[in-house]
Amino acid sequence: MSEPLEFIPGSVAQSGRVALVTGGAGKVGATVVRALASRGYAVAIHAHGSLLQARELAAQLDAAGVPSLAVTANLRDEGPVRAMVQRVADHFGRIDALVTCAAIWQAGQLEAVTAEDLRAHFDINCVGTFVAAQEAGAFMVRQPEGGGIVTLGDWAVSRPYSDYAAYFPSKGAIPALTRTLAVEFAARNPRVRVNCVLPGPVTLPPDMEPEARAAVLAGTLVNREGTPAHVAHAVLFLLENDFVTGVCLPVDGGRTIA
Question: For the whole prediction, is pTM greater than 0.85?
Answer without folding.
Answer: yes
